Structure prediction request, 319 residues.
Amino acid sequence: MCHELGSVRDLVIEQRPTPDPGPGQVRLAVQAAGASYVDGLRVAGKYQFPMTPPYPPGGEAAGVIDAVGEGVTDWAVGDRALAVVAAGGFADALVCKPHQLYRLPDAVSAEIGASFYQVYGTAWFALKHRTTVRPGETMLVTGAGGGVGLAAIDLARSMGARVIAIASSPEKRALAVQVGAEATIDPTTEDVKTRARELTDGQGVDVVYDVVGGELSEQCLRAMRFDGRFVIIGFTAGIGRVPLNLVLLNNRTVVGVEWGGWVQRNAEANRALMVDVLDAIARGELHPVTPTVRPLEDAADVLADLLERRAVGKIVLQA
Prediction:
């Protein structure tokens, strides 16, 4: 439970009666709850869509329906599902409405089911709706060892692109290669522009997928080829400031990606998008990394690791 916004370290474990679903609701027996950077920002009071405490964090939870309220006809006890909610996933039971649920194919584990939604939704929206990555192009991904970057690498690879991954630790760079990156750059020891151009025969990259922001943004912009696309995903290192003359003089395109805001305006289109993602995972076209499993009691530590950029890959919590 989060009783006050400000510090993830103030989260507390509480025992409460198991809730029963009301009319038009179902109850999910949670088998895994995804922990995300957004969850941490919300607890810290730094997200653009604030929560009002007290509330239990957790926007993604996967498990099995174990109770169905009056009037629900599309879901039954025993159905496997992913629940996408504003909050409540960090629990062993979650009451929600059918429109918040997605069916989990048998080929998708609860751990994968609880950890793909935000990162693959962002990547799919960015690379198939906001811009299009074409076979043979090269994409440079910042924050490549985290969930958002890894999903982008996986999707771009499936679309026929070549990926160069930027990540600050050997563990993160190794995971990026495992997912499909063909080359990596260590931003702490290598010049990003120079190394990216070396890896593209001096041409520069076609697309930048910038998760990090901060000082890295300008370095990545300078690593782009003429008429490349710079895709803005987030600012884990702060809002990047770039010289716009580098955009103008090189016919470059800057693309903002605010998937969450789009979802609020296009709920049905997003449901179709996520069904496509799930189908691609079930068919083996996409390969989400197996997340690290941590006990629910570690929620504060996990969110702190995410906010402070220590986490590698995806993490799920289990009660």
